[in-house]
Each structure stands twice: as structure tokens, then as C-alpha cells.
Please model this.
Amino acid sequence: MNREVRKIRRISYQKIFNFVSFSFILACCIFYGTRFIKLYREHNKENEVETLATNILNSNNGNDKFKKIGDDYYFTEDNENNYIKYSNLMWRIIKVNKDKSITIVLDNSITALAAGSSNSFENADINNWLNNKNNENDTGILQNNLNNVSTYLAYTKTCSDTIKDYKKITCDKTTEGSYITTPSIYDYINTGGENSFMNNEENFYLINYDSDNKIVYVNDKGKIKTSDKNDIIGIKPVITIKSTVTKVDGDGNKDNPYTIETNSSLFGGYVKLGSDTWRIYNVSEDNAYLSLDSYLKVNGEEITLNYSNNNYYHNDTIYGSLAYYLNTTYINNLSYKDIIKEENFPNGIYNNTNFDYREVLNKTVPTKVSPLSIGNIILNPKLTNYYLSTGISENSNLIYTMTNDFNLYTKNGTNSLKIVPTIQIKKDLLTKGDGSLESPYEVE
Model:
């Protein structure tokens, strides 16, 4: 009897010892394993490259104007933390997408066109102007000038639904295979509609059409309107930054925007020639096309001139015309006149029987100084009420005029208006400066 009791007690002590040993070993594994995992994560976190998207998400944690809508995070209303500079242009961040790509819109319109006869963005002249179509001539006016598109940009998926009910805006259809679009009504409403940062007193197209095949746009009061496609109004490009792109500098404020480029492009850069500041609005293989970043001045004073007493044609041999003044009196007073090249500048017709910007750009005239044309990139939205070089018909003296709300209209060429000239120079001459306003390109 006693021997049996002692045997049972020995077995119980062994179990207790085994249990305590197991618990100790398990505790050690948990403790040291947890520390190992923590140290491993901290080490990898130090080596992890923070993308622009994660920086935006982290820095706007707690921002009540940075809202999650569906799977995306939108900047809304008058948010001041969503500025980004790319290709020497100022953009605004619309949203961080669920895949961590970033959809952005240009802060101001960059040109003005008519929508034309197409019933979809994919087939519209607006799309041709924005995106390069298999290297077709005069397509991709903007895309061809943006900096390292394949490095920084992904295809933009914008909600392009046909609008049947303005109280039920859907996003069932999105664009495919385009780097650049225009804003969607879906994104405009999600960013605040009339209270959105996109509403800056400009007329600009949205990507959507309504059930009557009219194109939808935002007017200068921020109201959503439709056009019969004969209006000539602003285009605000929308692009998408790749999810892998990292921040180079900036905090999203207007005075310190996010930047992503390690090397800037000529396009959009400022150029100092003599006492004048110009801006590069187009770059070809050999040349830089410059538009004056202010109105034309004589002895420091802005002047007004008429276009012509005849028609839209830019004839620099006819005394009294704007073309004659620019290519004689004006150019001869420039200290840098010798580097200005004679080139073919656009001088075409644009009207409701043929709203094709390509025909405007392809009808050219050889000259040294010319106004901007419909179809050109417009970089200074603050300049207004100045002549373009585009007419409405062969025999009419009505000339298109650029406005600050990007709603183009015509004026009789005998009116005196302010002037914004353009010139061309060899781009190889720009060997000094970085193209910023603080350090513009210069010719040595």
C-alpha cells in the first residue's frame, strides 16, 4: 500500500517539472521571438523607402478635409495641403487611390478648345491634344512635353460614365490606356463641387457626356453645365502618379509643393533674355518655343495694339498690322534679337464647321515673332484679353481672344488689346540656370 502511494507521488512531481520546464521554454521563445520580430521590422522599416502616397497618407492623418470615400482618399473643399509640382507646372492632388497611385489635376487650364462632334472622350479632339496617338502628327501636344512620362506616370482611370441623372452619379466606366484625361464629374463632386479647390473661376471641361450627347463642363461660378460642343473653353489635364514614385521634397503647401523629379525638363521653364522673362511652352528636337510671361511693354509700360484692318492673316510685310510691328519695331529693340529664329508659326482658322486644332497648327506662316495660337499650350492664366493668331474665317476680321476664365471669344482686329508675343530660339543656347523663376534659364 505505501509503495503504491510513493510511486504515484513520484509520477506527479515529474509532470510538474515537465510542465514548468515547458512553460519556461515557451516563455523564452515568446519573449525572444517577439523581440526578434520587432527588431527585424524596425530594421526593415529603416531601410524601407517611403513613397509619395504613404507620405501623403501619414502627413494628413487627422486632416478633416482629407476623406476616405469608397476605397480612395480625397482632398476636399479648399484644402491647402495638396499642391504638387511636376514638369514645371503646379498641380493639385485629387486623391490617393487604393493602389497608392495618386490622381492629380492641373491647378489652371492649359489651353482652350471646342469639344467638336465626338460623343466620347476617347474620340474627341481634346483627347488627341492631350495624348500621343501612336505618334500621329500634332497629337499629344501636352504628353510630348511632360517630363519622363514613362518614369513618373501611370495610365489614368477616370470615371467616364454617361450622365443620365445628376442626383445619381456613378463610376461604372473608366478610361483605359491614356496617360491624360480631364476631370470627371464623380471626382469634382467628391472633392466638394462648387466648394472644391478645382473651382477657381475658370470654365473647364469634364470628361463626361450627358444622355443628349452634350459634353459636361464647370463654369466660372463652379456650376455644372452642358455644352453643344461649339463652346471653346478650358482644359484642365488630369494625370496619375505611379504608386512607386517617391517624394523628393516639399510638404504639399503652395509655397512648398511636393516634388518628385530628380531632373527637371525644359518645358514650362522660365527663360531670362535681356530684361524680359519668357516661358517655354513647347520643345522640339532643336528649338524651344517661348511665350512672354507678361504683356508686351515699351519703356516699361504695357501697350495695346490692334491686330489688323484686313483679316486674321499674320502678314509681317503690311504696315500697320500687329505682325509688322512685332517683326520690325519690337524685335529691333531687343538686345537678343540675333538669337531669334524665323520659323513657321501657326496661323489658321477655327470655326464650327471644322473645330480641328490640327488644321490650325498646320496652317503656318514664316515669321520671327507671333502671337500664340489656338492649339498652343497656355502657361500664364493671369494674362487676359489678348489676341491669338487664329481667325474665324478667311474673309473675317474677327480674331480669337484669350480670356482669364478660359472662355474664348472673338473681337474685331481693329480693337486695341494687350499683346503676348512668342518666339523661337535654339534650345542648346540655354546653358545656364535651372528653369525656375528664381534661377531662370539664360543664354551665355
Q: What stands out?
A: Residues 1-9 have pLDDT under 50 and may be disordered.
